[in-house]
Design brief:
Keywords: Repeat. This is Lumazine-binding domain-containing protein. InterPro entries: ATP_synth_asu-like_sf, Lumazine-bd, Lumazine-bd_dom, Riboflavin_synthase-like_b-brl. The chain is α+β, with helices and mostly antiparallel strands. It has 2 domains: 158 residues, Elongation Factor Tu (Ef-tu), domain 3; 90 residues, Beta Barrel (Elongation Factor Tu (Ef-tu), domain 3). The protein is 16% helix and 29% strand. A 7-stranded antiparallel sheet has the order 10-9-13-7-8-12-11. Strands 1-2-5-4-3-6 form a 6-stranded antiparallel β-barrel. The longest helix has 12 residues. It is globular and about 60 Å long.
Length: 281
């Protein structure tokens, strides 16, 4: 079964702290988005060092109270449930960021502290209504993922964490983004779409033909790996193109990548001398 044929279905406003005006919030995010490659954010302070899962923000009376304890790490399948719409991305007083998303399917049975993968990034629900939910982002998450490119109106892939009774239609996805890649080519073939992504060699070594990879949280099967170009490609069938955000992105835009964790475990075991110790015994 090719996981590029993943099942998915198509598919919110946190207030900025009174001490931070909308203009200030907009400038902060704009500065992060427009930063040149050599730009570095200030080293994380103690207030930044908190986990993504314990982000504290000013309470929004319209939304339900925020969750204050760390969420349990969860597992995803890479089978996108719906596409949500970004309503608001803004700074909060203690240095973090709020991301407010309009959604429907992933809000069914949602609770404070639940994990939802947003473009493949595992984030924790800090407040919600019947039509939207809010998650907290740390500056480090914005550094490491493509979420910094989001703006009001952007669509994002959404998936709730797996429950013990769920079908595992994709592969094991942790929601821990390993890095980003850049779309360098999109080529239609019939009603399917070829997509080629350029990625750092440090991640490309974990990408293998016919292996798993999560692209913006979507479980896909790699078709070919081009070591000389530092790229890999995959194909999206017509159905999948209608259910995930990848086809909506343009050449030059970033995608979040999470490689198959099995490859990293194997590398770790080999480099630690595990095989040699087994032979010696």
């Amino acid at each position: 079964m090719s996981h590029s044929f993943s099942h998915a279905s198509l598919a919110t406003t946190s207030k900025v702290s009174p001490s931070i005006t909308p203009i200030t919030a907009t400038r902060r995010i704009t500065n992060l988005r427009s930063a040149k490659p050599h730009f570095k954010l200030a080293p994380p302070s103690k207030s930044y060092a908190r986990s993504l899962f314990t982000a504290k923000t000013t309470l929004n009376p319209v939304l339900k109270p925020r969750y204050s304890t760390p969420a349990i790490r969860c597992l995803f399948t890479g089978i996108i449930e719906e596409m949500g719409e970004i309503k608001h991305l803004g700074t909060i007083q203690d240095g973090g960021f709020d991301l407010n998303i309009r959604a429907k399917t992933v809000l069914e049975g949602v609770n404070l502290g639940d994990s939802i993968a947003v473009n493949g990034t595992c984030l924790t629900v800090t407040s919600f209504t019947n039509e939207e939910f809010t998650v907290g982002l740390s500056p480090e998450t914005l550094r490491k993922t493509s979420l910094i490119e989001l703006e009001p109106g952007s669509l994002v892939n959404l998936e709730r964490a797996v429950q013990p009774t769920s079908r595992m239609g994709g592969h094991f996805v942790q929601g821990h983004v390993d890095g980003t890649g850049e779309i360098v080519e999109k080529e239609p073939e019939g009603d399917s779409l070829w997509v080629k992504v350029k990625v750092d060699k440090g991640l490309l070594k974990y990408v293998v033909p016919k292996g798993f990879i999560a692209v913006d949280g979507t479980s896909l099967t790699v078709v070919d790996v081009f070591d000389d170009e530092g790229c890999f490609n995959f194909m999206l069938v017509a159905y999948t193109q209608q259910k995930v955000v990848i086809p909506l992105k343009k050449v030059g835009q970033k995608v979040n990548l999470e490689v198959d964790i099995l490859g990293k475990y194997v590398e770790r075991l080999l480099s630690s001398g595990f095989v040699e110790s087994i032979k010696a015994s």
